[in-house]
Amino acid sequence: MEEKILSAFLYNKKLKFSEIEKSVKTRSNKLAYHIKKLENQGILIKEKEFYSLSEFAQKIIPYLSSKQSALPVILIAIKEKEKVFLIKRKKRPFLDKLSLPGGRLLVGEEISDSVKRIMKEKFSINAKLSKINSVSLEHTIKNKKKIHSFLLIFVTATTKDKINYLTLNKKEMITSDYELIKNNLNKEIKINTFLTDL
Question: Which CATH code fits 2-63?
Fold first, then answer.
């Protein structure tokens, strides 16, 4: 119900209770309960007879959809000669496969900051972005159906910390990670960052 209420604000800056009621097509007492809940969470603000989204709630607007979108993921290659720092995945998808270290690109985060955060939080390694190698789209498939979609931002980083490097092993690795290392390690691209006022 909360998602339906918030969706009403996709095309409106402010709405009266009756306008929200008309949009979500539900009983007024049920609607009042959910609106009060959103107010208590700091998501909706009431000024006179109008409701609007709080500044905090503005962040969730792009994610209000019943459709799933591709997840932007940073994959980090730290190499020494012919070896690369790889990890064994402890969660699905790709449980127990060797992979590049990585994680989600968070809202408002620069790629260089993401590299530092992921390597420090997950592996206690101090790393610094060297370059952005490539951007690829990956679809994972099970029983001929596409299950997940990832936007893979493949980067190279450096560290002065002592870490264990491994030799590439195609059979034990996530296929896309292996292909990125083999084919894109010497490439470099630029990704622009725009700071756009609302």
Answer: 1.10.10.10
